[in-house]
Amino acid sequence: MREVSNHASALGEAIGSMLEGEIHRILKPIAEDKGCIYVTAGAVNQRTGRTTKLILTDNSGNGYNIDSVIINNRFQPLVVLESKYIRYKKHNRDKASWICTAHTKLRERYTTIRKSIAVLMGNWSYPSRRLLESFEVELFHISFDEICNVLAYHDIPYNWAENNRQQAQECWITFSQLSQTDKEVIAEELIAVVKNDLRESLEIALDESLPRTVNSVRLVITSNRGETYTYNFSNLEETVTFLASYDQEKDMDTSNSPVLLSTSAPLPTNLELAEVIELDEDKELSELDE
User: Fold this and answer.
1) How far is CA 198 from CA 65, 81, 205, 266, in A?
2) Residue-wise pLDDT tens digits, 225-246
Protein backbone atom coordinates (compact mmCIF):
# COMPACT_ATOMS: atom_id res chain seq x y z
CA MET A 1 0.00 0.00 0.00
CA ARG A 2 1.47 3.33 -1.06
CA GLU A 3 1.74 6.13 1.49
CA VAL A 4 -0.47 9.17 0.87
CA SER A 5 -0.94 12.43 2.74
CA ASN A 6 -4.61 12.91 1.84
CA HIS A 7 -6.49 9.62 2.02
CA ALA A 8 -9.82 11.08 0.86
CA SER A 9 -8.25 12.64 -2.21
CA ALA A 10 -6.28 9.48 -3.02
CA LEU A 11 -9.38 7.28 -2.80
CA GLY A 12 -11.44 9.69 -4.89
CA GLU A 13 -8.70 9.76 -7.53
CA ALA A 14 -8.53 5.97 -7.54
CA ILE A 15 -12.29 5.60 -7.97
CA GLY A 16 -12.36 8.17 -10.77
CA SER A 17 -9.48 6.39 -12.50
CA MET A 18 -11.20 3.02 -12.11
CA LEU A 19 -14.39 4.32 -13.64
CA GLU A 20 -12.55 5.98 -16.53
CA GLY A 21 -10.70 2.75 -17.25
CA GLU A 22 -13.94 0.79 -17.27
CA ILE A 23 -15.50 3.27 -19.70
CA HIS A 24 -12.56 2.80 -22.06
CA ARG A 25 -12.82 -1.01 -21.72
CA ILE A 26 -16.51 -0.93 -22.67
CA LEU A 27 -16.36 1.58 -25.53
CA LYS A 28 -13.06 0.76 -27.24
CA PRO A 29 -14.30 -2.53 -28.80
CA ILE A 30 -17.39 -0.74 -30.16
CA ALA A 31 -15.23 1.91 -31.84
CA GLU A 32 -12.87 -0.69 -33.30
CA ASP A 33 -15.79 -2.80 -34.54
CA LYS A 34 -16.95 0.26 -36.48
CA GLY A 35 -13.50 0.65 -38.07
CA CYS A 36 -12.52 3.57 -35.82
CA ILE A 37 -9.62 4.26 -33.46
CA TYR A 38 -10.15 4.86 -29.76
CA VAL A 39 -7.53 7.34 -28.53
CA THR A 40 -6.81 8.05 -24.86
CA ALA A 41 -3.33 9.62 -25.02
CA GLY A 42 -1.16 11.82 -27.18
CA ALA A 43 2.00 10.95 -29.09
CA VAL A 44 4.98 9.29 -27.44
CA ASN A 45 7.60 11.69 -26.12
CA GLN A 46 10.80 10.72 -27.95
CA ARG A 47 12.98 11.79 -25.01
CA THR A 48 11.12 10.05 -22.16
CA GLY A 49 9.42 7.26 -24.09
CA ARG A 50 6.14 8.08 -22.36
CA THR A 51 2.85 9.00 -23.95
CA THR A 52 1.82 12.64 -23.67
CA LYS A 53 -1.55 14.06 -22.71
CA LEU A 54 -4.30 13.98 -25.31
CA ILE A 55 -4.49 17.64 -26.37
CA LEU A 56 -6.86 18.91 -29.05
CA THR A 57 -6.63 22.51 -30.21
CA ASP A 58 -9.31 24.91 -31.38
CA ASN A 59 -9.20 27.44 -34.22
CA SER A 60 -7.40 29.95 -31.97
CA GLY A 61 -4.66 27.51 -30.96
CA ASN A 62 -6.00 26.89 -27.46
CA GLY A 63 -5.33 23.35 -26.27
CA TYR A 64 -7.75 21.16 -24.30
CA ASN A 65 -6.76 18.00 -22.43
CA ILE A 66 -9.48 15.53 -23.46
CA ASP A 67 -10.03 12.15 -21.78
CA SER A 68 -10.59 10.29 -25.04
CA VAL A 69 -11.56 10.82 -28.66
CA ILE A 70 -12.75 8.42 -31.34
CA ILE A 71 -11.32 9.07 -34.79
CA ASN A 72 -11.90 7.57 -38.23
CA ASN A 73 -9.27 6.14 -40.56
CA ARG A 74 -8.55 9.67 -41.85
CA PHE A 75 -7.71 10.69 -38.26
CA GLN A 76 -10.74 12.97 -38.07
CA PRO A 77 -12.46 13.12 -34.65
CA LEU A 78 -16.00 11.74 -34.52
CA VAL A 79 -16.80 11.56 -30.81
CA VAL A 80 -15.28 13.45 -27.87
CA LEU A 81 -15.62 11.83 -24.46
CA GLU A 82 -15.10 13.04 -20.91
CA SER A 83 -15.40 11.17 -17.60
CA LYS A 84 -15.48 13.49 -14.59
CA TYR A 85 -15.70 12.45 -10.96
CA ILE A 86 -16.36 14.90 -8.14
CA ARG A 87 -17.20 14.32 -4.50
CA TYR A 88 -18.23 17.85 -3.52
CA LYS A 89 -20.69 20.10 -5.36
CA LYS A 90 -18.47 23.14 -4.91
CA HIS A 91 -16.46 21.94 -7.92
CA ASN A 92 -19.53 21.57 -10.18
CA ARG A 93 -19.57 24.89 -11.98
CA ASP A 94 -15.86 25.02 -12.86
CA LYS A 95 -15.74 21.50 -14.29
CA ALA A 96 -19.04 21.84 -16.14
CA SER A 97 -18.03 25.18 -17.64
CA TRP A 98 -14.71 23.72 -18.79
CA ILE A 99 -16.44 20.91 -20.67
CA CYS A 100 -18.90 23.35 -22.25
CA THR A 101 -16.10 25.61 -23.47
CA ALA A 102 -13.74 22.87 -24.63
CA HIS A 103 -16.29 20.81 -26.54
CA THR A 104 -17.96 23.82 -28.16
CA LYS A 105 -14.67 25.26 -29.38
CA LEU A 106 -13.48 21.88 -30.65
CA ARG A 107 -16.71 21.31 -32.56
CA GLU A 108 -16.21 24.66 -34.25
CA ARG A 109 -12.87 23.49 -35.62
CA TYR A 110 -13.59 19.81 -36.25
CA THR A 111 -16.82 19.65 -38.22
CA THR A 112 -16.60 15.84 -38.22
CA ILE A 113 -17.42 15.63 -34.49
CA ARG A 114 -20.84 14.02 -34.24
CA LYS A 115 -21.32 13.83 -30.51
CA SER A 116 -19.95 15.11 -27.22
CA ILE A 117 -20.33 12.65 -24.35
CA ALA A 118 -19.73 13.24 -20.65
CA VAL A 119 -19.96 10.49 -18.02
CA LEU A 120 -20.51 12.35 -14.76
CA MET A 121 -19.74 10.55 -11.53
CA GLY A 122 -20.48 11.76 -8.03
CA ASN A 123 -22.21 14.87 -6.66
CA TRP A 124 -23.20 16.69 -9.84
CA SER A 125 -25.94 19.26 -9.21
CA TYR A 126 -28.96 19.56 -11.47
CA PRO A 127 -28.09 23.14 -12.61
CA SER A 128 -24.62 21.99 -13.71
CA ARG A 129 -26.06 19.05 -15.61
CA ARG A 130 -28.62 21.34 -17.21
CA LEU A 131 -25.80 23.70 -18.24
CA LEU A 132 -23.96 20.88 -19.98
CA GLU A 133 -27.06 19.69 -21.79
CA SER A 134 -27.72 23.23 -23.01
CA PHE A 135 -24.34 22.99 -24.78
CA GLU A 136 -25.46 19.77 -26.46
CA VAL A 137 -23.29 17.50 -24.33
CA GLU A 138 -24.92 14.08 -23.90
CA LEU A 139 -24.81 13.10 -20.23
CA PHE A 140 -24.62 9.80 -18.37
CA HIS A 141 -24.77 10.24 -14.60
CA ILE A 142 -23.62 7.88 -11.85
CA SER A 143 -24.80 9.52 -8.65
CA PHE A 144 -22.81 9.78 -5.44
CA ASP A 145 -25.39 7.62 -3.65
CA GLU A 146 -24.98 4.88 -6.25
CA ILE A 147 -21.22 4.99 -5.76
CA CYS A 148 -21.65 4.81 -1.97
CA ASN A 149 -24.02 1.84 -2.25
CA VAL A 150 -21.59 -0.17 -4.37
CA LEU A 151 -18.60 0.61 -2.15
CA ALA A 152 -20.58 -0.15 1.02
CA TYR A 153 -21.27 -3.63 -0.34
CA HIS A 154 -17.49 -4.08 -0.45
CA ASP A 155 -17.08 -2.84 3.15
CA ILE A 156 -16.01 0.68 2.19
CA PRO A 157 -18.31 3.24 3.95
CA TYR A 158 -17.60 6.01 1.47
CA ASN A 159 -20.23 8.52 2.63
CA TRP A 160 -18.19 10.13 5.39
CA ALA A 161 -18.36 13.74 6.57
CA GLU A 162 -16.03 16.12 4.71
CA ASN A 163 -13.58 16.49 7.61
CA ASN A 164 -13.67 12.89 8.88
CA ARG A 165 -10.04 12.04 8.21
CA GLN A 166 -10.11 8.90 10.33
CA GLN A 167 -12.83 7.23 8.26
CA ALA A 168 -11.19 8.38 5.05
CA GLN A 169 -7.96 6.71 6.13
CA GLU A 170 -9.75 3.48 7.07
CA CYS A 171 -11.53 3.40 3.72
CA TRP A 172 -8.28 3.98 1.88
CA ILE A 173 -6.63 1.09 3.73
CA THR A 174 -9.54 -1.24 2.95
CA PHE A 175 -9.53 -0.22 -0.70
CA SER A 176 -5.75 -0.63 -1.00
CA GLN A 177 -5.99 -4.20 0.28
CA LEU A 178 -8.43 -5.22 -2.45
CA SER A 179 -7.13 -7.43 -5.23
CA GLN A 180 -7.06 -6.21 -8.81
CA THR A 181 -9.93 -8.57 -9.56
CA ASP A 182 -12.00 -7.05 -6.74
CA LYS A 183 -11.35 -3.55 -8.09
CA GLU A 184 -12.41 -4.63 -11.57
CA VAL A 185 -15.64 -6.03 -10.13
CA ILE A 186 -16.32 -2.74 -8.34
CA ALA A 187 -15.69 -0.80 -11.55
CA GLU A 188 -18.15 -3.02 -13.44
CA GLU A 189 -20.78 -2.56 -10.74
CA LEU A 190 -20.31 1.22 -10.70
CA ILE A 191 -20.67 1.62 -14.44
CA ALA A 192 -23.58 -0.83 -14.74
CA VAL A 193 -26.22 1.88 -14.29
CA VAL A 194 -25.20 3.65 -17.54
CA LYS A 195 -23.43 0.86 -19.44
CA ASN A 196 -26.17 -0.13 -21.88
CA ASP A 197 -27.26 3.43 -22.68
CA LEU A 198 -23.64 4.48 -23.16
CA ARG A 199 -22.96 1.63 -25.57
CA GLU A 200 -26.12 2.37 -27.55
CA SER A 201 -25.28 6.08 -27.78
CA LEU A 202 -21.84 5.36 -29.23
CA GLU A 203 -23.14 2.81 -31.70
CA ILE A 204 -25.65 5.35 -33.01
CA ALA A 205 -22.98 8.06 -33.27
CA LEU A 206 -20.70 5.80 -35.33
CA ASP A 207 -23.43 4.44 -37.60
CA GLU A 208 -22.34 5.09 -41.20
CA SER A 209 -25.57 3.76 -42.73
CA LEU A 210 -27.53 6.89 -41.82
CA PRO A 211 -27.74 9.24 -44.85
CA ARG A 212 -26.31 12.70 -44.14
CA THR A 213 -28.92 15.47 -44.37
CA VAL A 214 -29.44 18.91 -42.83
CA ASN A 215 -31.01 18.50 -39.38
CA SER A 216 -31.20 22.17 -38.38
CA VAL A 217 -29.66 25.55 -39.16
CA ARG A 218 -28.36 28.10 -36.69
CA LEU A 219 -27.76 31.58 -38.06
CA VAL A 220 -25.65 34.07 -36.09
CA ILE A 221 -25.61 37.75 -37.06
CA THR A 222 -23.38 40.30 -35.32
CA SER A 223 -23.70 44.07 -35.50
CA ASN A 224 -20.88 46.61 -35.72
CA ARG A 225 -21.64 47.38 -32.06
CA GLY A 226 -20.82 43.82 -31.04
CA GLU A 227 -24.43 42.72 -30.53
CA THR A 228 -25.32 39.12 -31.34
CA TYR A 229 -28.55 37.85 -32.93
CA THR A 230 -29.12 34.09 -33.10
CA TYR A 231 -31.84 32.42 -35.16
CA ASN A 232 -32.68 28.71 -35.39
CA PHE A 233 -34.38 27.02 -38.34
CA SER A 234 -35.41 23.44 -39.06
CA ASN A 235 -34.20 23.43 -42.68
CA LEU A 236 -32.34 25.41 -45.36
CA GLU A 237 -35.51 26.63 -47.06
CA GLU A 238 -36.65 28.45 -43.91
CA THR A 239 -33.21 30.01 -43.58
CA VAL A 240 -33.13 31.28 -47.15
CA THR A 241 -36.66 32.71 -46.83
CA PHE A 242 -35.67 34.52 -43.62
CA LEU A 243 -32.53 36.03 -45.15
CA ALA A 244 -34.41 37.14 -48.26
CA SER A 245 -36.80 39.18 -46.12
CA TYR A 246 -34.24 40.34 -43.54
CA ASP A 247 -34.66 44.00 -42.61
CA GLN A 248 -31.65 45.40 -40.75
CA GLU A 249 -33.49 48.32 -39.18
CA LYS A 250 -36.42 46.21 -37.98
CA ASP A 251 -34.71 42.90 -37.22
CA MET A 252 -31.74 44.46 -35.42
CA ASP A 253 -33.94 46.59 -33.18
CA THR A 254 -33.05 45.74 -29.56
CA SER A 255 -35.95 47.51 -27.83
CA ASN A 256 -37.67 44.19 -27.09
CA SER A 257 -34.55 42.23 -26.18
CA PRO A 258 -34.46 40.41 -22.80
CA VAL A 259 -33.67 42.50 -19.70
CA LEU A 260 -32.25 41.60 -16.30
CA LEU A 261 -34.91 43.42 -14.32
CA SER A 262 -38.41 44.72 -14.93
CA THR A 263 -38.26 48.27 -16.31
CA SER A 264 -41.00 49.25 -13.87
CA ALA A 265 -38.83 48.43 -10.87
CA PRO A 266 -36.64 51.14 -9.28
CA LEU A 267 -33.01 50.98 -10.33
CA PRO A 268 -30.98 48.96 -7.78
CA THR A 269 -27.58 49.71 -6.35
CA ASN A 270 -24.64 47.63 -7.56
CA LEU A 271 -24.86 45.45 -4.45
CA GLU A 272 -28.60 44.88 -4.86
CA LEU A 273 -28.18 43.99 -8.52
CA ALA A 274 -25.49 41.45 -7.66
CA GLU A 275 -27.81 39.82 -5.14
CA VAL A 276 -30.61 39.63 -7.70
CA ILE A 277 -28.66 37.99 -10.49
CA GLU A 278 -26.43 35.72 -8.37
CA LEU A 279 -27.46 32.07 -8.71
CA ASP A 280 -26.73 29.31 -6.22
CA GLU A 281 -25.82 26.29 -8.32
CA ASP A 282 -26.88 23.93 -5.54
CA LYS A 283 -30.52 25.02 -5.79
CA GLU A 284 -33.01 23.00 -7.77
CA LEU A 285 -34.71 24.39 -10.87
CA SER A 286 -37.91 25.26 -8.98
CA GLU A 287 -35.93 27.37 -6.56
CA LEU A 288 -34.01 29.10 -9.35
CA ASP A 289 -37.21 30.09 -11.09
CA GLU A 290 -38.78 31.64 -8.02
Assistant:
1) 22, 11, 11, 50
2) 999 999 999 999 999 999 999 9
